[in-house]
Automatic annotation (TrEMBL):
One GO term (biological process): phenylalanyl-tRNA aminoacylation
UniProt family annotation: Belongs to the class-II aminoacyl-tRNA synthetase family.
Protein name according to UniProt: phenylalanine--tRNA ligase
NCBIfam families according to UniProt: pheS_mito (TIGR00469)
Domain Aminoacyl-transfer RNA synthetases class-II family profile: 90-355
Catalysis: reaction(s): tRNA(Phe) + L-phenylalanine + ATP = L-phenylalanyl-tRNA(Phe) + AMP + diphosphate + H(+)
Keyword Secreted: no
InterPro entries membership: aa-tRNA-synth_II (IPR006195), aa-tRNA-synth_II/BPL/LPL (IPR045864), Fdx_antiC-bd (IPR005121), Fdx_antiC-bd_sf (IPR036690), Phe-tRNA-synth_IIc_mito (IPR004530), Phenylalanyl-tRNA_Synthase (IPR002319)
GO cellular component, one term: mitochondrial matrix
Domain FDX-ACB: 362-409
Organism this protein belongs to: Cyprinodon variegatus (Sheepshead minnow)
Gene3D superfamilies the record matches: Bira Bifunctional Protein, Domain 2, Ferrodoxin-fold anticodon-binding domain
Length: 409
């Protein structure tokens, strides 16, 4: 196989192509009892990969044949870029928080949405996949796409891994932000660690129909219904249409808040395992349509398992890096991890809503290297990507498979 590795001097765009895998199929608390060990507050302990265990965030996880997390990736755990004041990811998160806080107020003047941005990125496989109805044979579970501490514990691949536990705790409206981890190539628009923010809102029968004439005669659920492209089998069409309207209105307002009142938007039908119907929201940016988030009506089975079977709800998820790269003209996703003061000081503003245009740090051209080598049968491309990251770090701009050849002997 021939891989081309391009080493750049910090001068380049993101987001996981169209947030392509916004969750590969998941909008993409590691302790004995994850639901009781959610926060990463407390001392930040240095992670260690030992011969028999992985030490991370004050806990020890036994190694097994699934363990594939690397020292470089563990070194990113606990950085909390989205909570670092005046970091561009923090600015985007705060802009979204401010919008929801000001736009959705309860009857007593309190914010409707609570915010959770400090949950541990170590989760169980059950949290990351099973709780979201992702099938056992789904390709998104492959070790080649995820970072496993062992067969039962992993670094979350999406913030949705916490959805069920937050709903089970009694929350009906919340925002969730955090770092997520996916084994992937590394280039100007992809990185194995990035940040997501998502929202969930649930409605009771009264909340959904209270403003509808004769709403007392309407119901969220029906018996003997069937699944169609427009609704789930247990939902009434009236309920789904109202939830869908509220979801699209909420997200259109959010995108207008971020991009400006003159932004063009459109909705595209899509598929996620944990919502139906599901949609992607696209905005017209610099002449092209660009996907910025995924969303949909939550699968009722998910709500039933979380103890909220009497409610119906929506959820959405977006990538913070993608939005920051667009809104601040940041050309390279790896810049978010920079400690360079020339980068960080550009985002120290008095008002989080203030427009910012990133100024490049380097004028040096790229250096390209071609590497060819023989491979064993068990080799996967991500094995090589991890090796490159370990040796070259964030200086490696892009690694691409150019050609492969199988010798007849």
């Amino acid at each position: 196989m021939t891989f081309s590795s391009s080493i750049l001097s910090r001068h380049q765009l993101w987001p996981r192509p169209r947030l392509h895998r916004l969750l590969s199929d998941a909008w993409t608390n590691g302790c004995a009892a994850p639901s009781r060990c959610l926060s990463t507050d407390g001392p930040s302990l240095h992670p260690v990969i030992g011969e028999n265990s992985v030490e991370l965030l004050g806990h020890s996880y036994p190694r097994d044949d699934f363990t594939n997390v690397t020292p470089k990736i563990l070194g990113k755990v606990g950085r909390h870029l989205h909570n670092q004041p005046y970091h561009p990811l923090w600015l985007i998160k705060e802009r979204i928080k401010a919008h929801f806080y000001s736009s959705y107020i309860g009857r007593w003047g309190n914010p409707v949405f609570s915010v959770h941005d400090n949950l541990s990125p170590v989760v169980t496989v059950e949290q990351n996949f099973d709780s979201l109805l992702i099938p056992a044979d789904h390709p998104s579970r492959k070790p080649g796409d995820n970072y496993y501490l062992n067969r039962t514990t992993m670094l979350r691949a999406h913030t949705s891994a916490h959805q069920r536990e937050l709903v089970r705790s009694g929350l009906d409206a919340f925002l969730l932000a955090g770092d997520v981890y996916r084994r992937d190539e590394i280039d100007a628009s992809h990185y194995p660690v990035f940040h997501q923010m998502e929202g969930v809102r649930l409605f009771s029968n009264h909340e959904l129909f209270s403003k509808v004439p004769n709403g007392e005669d309407l119901s969220l659920f029906e018996r003997g219904g069937r699944r169609t492209p427009h609704k789930q089998e247990s939902h009434t069409l009236e309920a789904v249409k109202l939830v869908e309207f509220d979801l699209k209105q909420t997200l259109t307002r959010l995108v207008t808040h971020l991009f400006g009142s003159d932004v063009d938007v459109r909705w595209v039908d899509c598929y996620f395992p944990f919502t139906h119907p599901s949609f992607e929201l696209e905005v017209r940016f610099q002449g092209d349509w660009m996907e910025v988030l995924g969303c949909g009506v939550m699968e009722q089975e998910l709500l039933n398992s979380a103890g909220a079977g009497n409610k119906l709800g929506w959820a959405f998820g977006l990538g913070l890096e993608r939005l920051a790269m667009i809104l601040y003209s940041i050309p390279d996703i790896r810049l978010f991890w920079s400690r360079d003061e020339r980068f960080l000081k550009q985002f120290r503003v008095e008002d989080v809503q203030q427009p910012i245009c990133f100024q490049p740090l380097s004028k040096y051209p790229p250096l390209l290297n071609d590497i060819s080598f023989w491979l064993p049968e068990s080799f996967t491309e991500n094995d090589f990507y991890e090796l490159v990251r370990t040796v070259g770090g964030d200086l490696v701009e892009k690694v691409t498979l150019v050609d492969d050849f199988t010798h007849p002997k």
